[in-house]
Amino acid sequence: MRSQGVLQAEIEMVVPFFDVDSMEVVWHGHYVKYFEVARCALLDKLGHNYTQMLTAGYAWPIIDLQVRYIRGARFGQKIIVRADLIEWENRLKLHYLISDAETGERMTRGSSVQVAVDIASREMQLASPRVLVAAVEHALA
């Protein structure tokens, strides 16, 4: 079992019809979308979301994404998607867990890594910009 991050955010959603395939389970690519929704909730909670990142002059592309499928989600199923902040000083690393809202059963887990890229120079930063680190420190205080 993975350890929890220093900050978490959860979203609850019902699997929509347009996310399932002919087998009536969520198509594998949509889990990444669910991770993104939880990641945005976490960044909002952190006080440094994508809009604020752009205003600060940085883009944060994903450079690594891992997904482990355990059990497929089905149309109409209520799920919880949790994002955990794991690393932030040199890169932004998050872990994700999708679970059944009623039973708590783990269904999918994953992780993503993002790095800061200076928008003006298009250069990857070797350390996270101070504005992100300060936002994390403030959220943890």
UniProtKB/TrEMBL annotation:
<keyword id="KW-0378">Hydrolase</keyword>
<dbReference type="InterPro" id="IPR029069">
    <property type="entry name" value="HotDog_dom_sf"/>
</dbReference>
<dbReference type="InterPro" id="IPR050563">
    <property type="entry name" value="4-hydroxybenzoyl-CoA_TE"/>
</dbReference>
<protein>
    <submittedName>
        <fullName>Acyl-CoA thioesterase</fullName>
    </submittedName>
</protein>
<dbReference type="Pfam" id="PF13279">
    <property type="entry name" value="4HBT_2"/>
</dbReference>
<comment type="similarity">
    <text>Belongs to the 4-hydroxybenzoyl-CoA thioesterase family.</text>
</comment>
